[in-house]
User: Which sequence fits this backbone?
């Protein structure tokens, strides 16, 4: 409390009881966790969609493995023309 400039115990006046403070803290923690999970799920879903997209499948240039393999074995390059 001192680090943020509040008196020890000063936060309690904003709640009817310590139990109410604890309940609010838990509620906020769960809400933050739910928000984080939603963002992480959305980002994972977007990453999977991008990975599985036809554009990603058809364009092997960004993949270092394919770049190295085709540099070593140019005869195995796919001719899309």
Assistant:
């Amino acid at each position: 409390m001192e680090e943020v400039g509040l008196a020890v115990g000063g936060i309690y006046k904003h709640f009817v009881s310590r139990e109410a403070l604890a309940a609010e803290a838990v509620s906020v923690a769960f809400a933050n966790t739910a928000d984080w999970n939603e963002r992480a799920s959305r980002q994972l879903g977007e990453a999977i969609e991008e990975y599985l997209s036809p554009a990603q499948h058809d364009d092997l240039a960004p993949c270092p493995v394919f770049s190295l393999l085709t540099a070593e074995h140019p005869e195995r390059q796919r001719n899309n023309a």
